[in-house]
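Annex B. Sample input.
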Amino acid sequence: MSTVMHVRCPDRLPEEVYRQVLEQLANLSPIVQALPPSAALVELRGALSYHGVDARRLGEMLRVRTVARLGVDVRVGIGPTITVAATASAQVPTPGGVLTIDPGDVTDWLGPLPVEALHGIGPRQAETLRVYGIHCVGLLAAVPPATVQRLLGGRAGRLAADCARGIDPRPVTPRALPASATTRWTFPRHTLDGAEVRAALLTLVVQLGQLLRHRGQAARALKLTLTFAGGATWETTRRLPDPSAHDEDLRTLAYRLLDAAGLQRGRLTGLVLAGQDLIDADHVALQISFDQQREDRLTAEAVSDRIRAKFGPDAIGPATTRLRPAS
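Annex B, continued. Sample output.
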């Protein structure tokens, strides 16, 4: 019998931290299914015998690791199916905790829950069920499946009826996070200053390059999103000539993306620079270069990465962002 763990991270968790949470999950079990932007499933069936502990203990171990290493407290639900585990994780009080539902207790535990608490039941479906007097999961389980199908539709009704009875044959399918990396910049005030915008974009380029190199990845394309006062956005995407994670290559294309926006009097509130269509850096062809200046820049880039790794990400950065007005 399967033992499934459903993990909920805090809302609006930065993508890089979410990836690090997924790495912690991979240390528990090789079968991890990412559910962006802030949740994941883990199949524990083989992991329990490997670690020699019960499922609740694995959930507690995960919480200790994410809090100690990442400063993130997660909510963990554990049960025999995806539906039970995901429903349990939603019942864990914020900010975090572990709730384990044993296979023999599934029906009794699900029964008193409001129908909208069952994972997979949306607001409109819950409203429909309540109109017909089905207020809790136990009542939903007691209704003939054919009746639920007439109320919610064939496939959705069949799935809801099964899940209310604790039946969910869906397996955890290993799935990594989509291949992208994102960096963001928010201006403290609306800005019209082109130099300030380009300096912020250069900072994002450096952060994105460092992130890609740390992951051992390279980007095939860049996407730039501009946010304006009032909430309007503008975005564009272009492919790199060759996959790269080097600041020089990323900067050249990022500036072209910014120039394509044709900014004149637009008041900006933020920038988002994303590396897309990522591949492993090992799959990037090594180019032989006779440009000594480029080789020197790549050497300096490697040194900068080592300095940041030792002293923190803000230990060294673009010179333009270090300038301060003269007193």
